[in-house]
Amino acid sequence: MVLFGGRSGEHAISCATAAGVLRAIDRERWDPVPVGITRQGQWVVAADDPAAWEIIDGRLPEVEASHADVVLPMATHAREVQVLTPGEVPSALGAVDVVMPLIHGPFGEDGTLQGMLEMSDVRYVGAGVLASAVGMDKHYMKVVCESEGLAVAPYVVVRPGAWERERDALLARITELGLPLFVKPARAGSSLGISKVDDLADLDAAIVAAREHDPKVLVEQGVAGREIECAVLGGHGGDRPRASLPGEIVVRDTNRAFYDFDAKYLGEGDVELSCPAELPAHVVAAVQDVAVRTFEALSSEGLSRVDVFVTPDEHVIVNEINTMPGFTPFSMYPRMWQESGLGYAELIDELLTLALERPTGLR
Questions:
Q1: For residue range 34-79, what is the model confidence (pLDDT) as tens digits?
Q2: Cβ(5)–Cβ(327) under 8 Å?
Q3: 2-124: which CATH architecture?
Q4: If we measure between CA atoms, which residue out of 46, 58, 57 comes closest to residue 15?
Q5: What does this protein do (predicted)?
Q6: Which residue among 99, 120, 258, 274 has the highest number of C-beta atoms inside a 10 angstrom radius?
């Protein structure tokens, strides 16, 4: 089952990811069953047509509601996915061996969907419940990374209601971070709701913008350094995870303060995706080591993209981990593996194989 869409602000990006997978998957080996989740959370049979889910000329695709619902098996011994239509006998959509949940953000990448699949004993691609939840929450991701000796940028958490209750105390702590600041929703992706703050007078507006996506907000110290990404892939049979050659994002548009949503998905000429990144061999090795250690710190599985800063003195600082990164053929995760010798279709095969190898339940 190729599962995409979802209730988060990254709905359209998930659809675009599914388009890439449906176009490239080896249909002699895999029989894909596309299932979309609407913004309201309804599971529906989706068109097996990559063109229907691509971002074209700025048009963002969307899963539409249906009169029929797709339902996962309710018992651990079952594999048949049902289609329920009011007033009709349930019909079988097919027996599903593995789910590829190409859903970004809350209600898909945060452990909720993974828990649902675990309850049905359905194998799936990617991180489990805990790793997904921790990876989604930038606050707890930092807590876990710090506990494992990995460097992260200094930060202050603004919990729901705290800005109104204890503004002065929080502002004092935030002021100590210095400028510039980055204000982020704690549990969102694709740079949604992120603001760069160069003047504390703009902090209120930045927190409001972040809260549009998550009531919990993270205020981070800006890090002077290059933005480097590294793709991590799980190992077979207990082997350690594998790290790709790193890539780098360079924003060419001087009117953009950082790599925001529009630059990622709508402004192809505004950014340069350099892959592999031009780094000395010892820095490449350091980035790969930090990426694998971050993957292991969260007990991640399958795939993750680890984003880091490399400072002028060559320190590697973890920015975040993305347990279900963008996965179109042009996204950085598959591009980094392409440069490392693993093509897009082969990468899909590898992820599905890893998912089928691992047992269900505790592992």
A1: 999 999 999 999 999 999 999 988 889 999 999 999 999 888 888 8
A2: no
A3: 3-Layer(aba) Sandwich (3.40)
A4: 46
A5: Cell wall formation.
A6: 99
